[in-house]
Here is the input.
Amino acid sequence: MCPSRRADGTLVFKLVFWGPSMGGKTTALAWVYEKEGLASGQLQSISDPTGRTLFFDRLVAKVSNVVFQVYTVAGQRRHKFQRQTVLKGTDALVFFWDSDQAQWNENIYSLKELLQMYGNKVLSSDIKIPPEVPLIVCANKRDLPNITGIDKIKDVLKAAKMPNTVIFETVAITGTNVKRAFVYAARECVLRHYQKLKSGEQVPPASPETEPTAPGP
Ligand SMILES: Nc1nc2c(ncn2[C@@H]2O[C@H](COP(=O)(O)OP(=O)(O)OP(=O)(O)O)[C@@H](O)[C@H]2O)c(=O)[nH]1
Ligand SMILES: [Mg+2]
Here is the structure.
């Protein structure tokens, strides 16, 4: 939407990994943290003993010297309020589609929810103008035996009026294509910001860097 600004003037973009529970968001972020050398600082995780995210994971990462706060949302349906909180002010989204065929309905539920909460940002009314917030898809778990075909995912994106969405086929447990997808989303995020500035679109001044506050009881 609009990056925040640190006291030293550095712009900080916010990138969010969205998608159903078990889709691989935390696994992918942990891969970026542990294996790709892009992280600056620790990986913060608020999760339950079984590894399900309760609120978010958060990591500060640098891509070509640009700083990103990267969050994952808690995918379980009951954590809607937490997702809404994390989504605020997002500059770019990576949707983790669980390719396991059995998870089809969960993917659809999650995409619909995102469009309800953020549809005005990730959809464009005019095909010639890119949406305010770029979104890419990671079709994750491509190593599993019974996976949804990429064409079926494309059909869903077309029906959702996002026909040009870029899809990466990922395996988060082995890191396959995770960095490529991440760097692509990060670049889209920065590119979109400068496009907005160049075209004179209303870009509110960058606000101070913030973190989501924990939901109340
Ligand atoms: N086979 C396979 N398993 C994966 C892959 N990515 C993640 N997993 C597994 O899927 C399970 C769920 O992964 P998480 O990363 O915790 O999923 P999540 O999207 O963060 O889930 P929530 O925190 O509930 O939203 C874990 O057991 C992972 O090891 C993958 O690409 N292939
Ligand atoms: Mg998680």
Summary: The chain has a mean pLDDT of 92. DSSP finds five helices and eight strands in the chain.
